[in-house]
Amino acid sequence: MIKRYLSSLALALGLAAVVAPAFAEEGESLPSAGTNVADQASLQRGAKLFFNYCVGCHSLKYVRYSRMASDLGLSEEEVMTNLNFTGAKFGEPVISHMPEASAKAWFGKAPPDLSLEARAKGVDFIFNYLNAFYLDPTRPVGWNNTVFPNASMPNPLWELQGLQVAVYGAAKPGEEAAVEKLTIAQPGRMTPEQFRGATRDLTAFLEYAAEPAALERRSVGIWVILFLAGLTFLLYLLKHEYWKDVHDSH
After folding, report:
1. Can you point out the beta strands (E) in 99-239?
2. For position 105, what pLDDT does the model report?
3. What is the pLDDT at residue 19?
4. Helix, strand, or coil (residue 224)
5. How far is Cα 131 from Cα 134, in angstroms, rounded to an integer?
């Protein structure tokens, strides 16, 4: 029995040793988003961006306006006045009013719900994706993306970022030239650094939307750790007192 358990443990550790570097290598391919869901101001700015530039196409069907207001430190009036553009009630989820049939006609498929996007693809993917749009007249919507090539989505933040174009490297015989870098051909309302900050805030908001309970769990976690530390100290004193009697009897 013990040998079987040891064999299973060795197999699990071996798989972890093989899989972990693969995940690490995959994560290293994209620069870190640097988001912080504990930064309430960042989440508020990200929410503003989402509801001004994204909710026209994308829903957050697992997030309710009321829950978002509570987590982001916003009043009902602030949310309903500044973030609710669909006429939904305060207790209802965030649902886009774009007709699905029209969306399929315009983009080839209906835009996905983004409630769990951060959990499905990761915050680094979202952040870099938002920064990687460039003009491409060969695409149906006129845009392409280096992180997600041939995406059927136009750049929703082009007014802020400006018009970004691709610089191609030398093509190998029989192959198409690859995008070497992206450059701003026409500036937008933000500087590149400001735009990266904005997309970081938007990514942080989507990270929050994927798991709203994370904020509460983190705050509760601190008290749990303090409780366990106090309990450990009390148990140590109890052990010391118990064994003191044992030693004295000998």
Report:
1. 133-135, 143-145, 162-168, 179-187
2. 77
3. 42
4. helix
5. 9
